[in-house]
Amino acid sequence: MTQTTPRQAEIAPENACPIAPVVDIVFSRWTTPILWTLHAYGRQRFVELQRRIATITPKVLTQRLRQLERDGLVHRTYHAEVPPRVEYEITALGGSLAPLFATLAEWSPNLERVDEARRAYDMRDGDGNRSA
Questions:
Q1: DSSP-based three-state secondary structure for 129
Q2: Per the CB 3.0–4.6 Å rule, which of 51, 59, 68, 103 could disulfide with 73?
Q3: pTM above 0.70?
Q4: Residues 13, 15, 19, 22: is their CA dihedral positive or negative?
Q5: pLDDT of 82-104, one tens digit each?
Q6: For residue 10, is it within any domain?
Q7: Residue 79 region by backbone torsions, left for phi larger than 0, else alpha for psi between -120 and 50, else beta
Q8: How many domains does the chain have?
């Protein structure tokens, strides 16, 4: 049986990056677009969310909304009408992520520089030299 040394415990993944749990919750493939949409447009019905996030499937949207509700970031309201109506809205906890999203939006012009860096990288050969 292998013992963990104090040095190994310091570099364990859960200790290496204290924001990793936040990233896992907030930045999954579909969580960010859902939260952004609810923050930007307010309360939405399922079909409205699906239209605004056109590339998400109904199954995945349902799964992500359930997880976001479980995490306390989204509130689901069921209206017992005929036909039944369900609405989703961002909670205060979810809304507290707005400054983070705003900061990321401010950084987004740098994506052009990322594309340039990728193109330059892709032009190099395997030894790190530029191709002719």
A1: coil
A2: 68
A3: yes
A4: positive
A5: 988 999 999 999 999 999 989 98
A6: no
A7: beta
A8: 1
Give exposure, 115-131, as e/b (b: 16+ Cβ within 10 Å).
eeeeeeeeeeeeeeeee
Question: Is-contact 30 59, C-beta < 8 A?
Answer: no
pLDDT tens, position by position, 103-113:
988 999 999 99
Residue with tokens 């040394």: 5
Q: Is 35 part of a structural domain of the chain?
A: yes
Residues 20, 92: Cα–Cα separation, whole Å:
22
Q: Which two tokens stand for residue 18?
A: 């204290």
8 Å CB contact between 125 and 115: no
The CATH number of whichever domain residue 92 belongs to comes to: 1.10.10.10
Pair 37, 53: CB distance under 8 Å: yes
What do you get for the CA distance between the two ends of the chain, in Å? 53
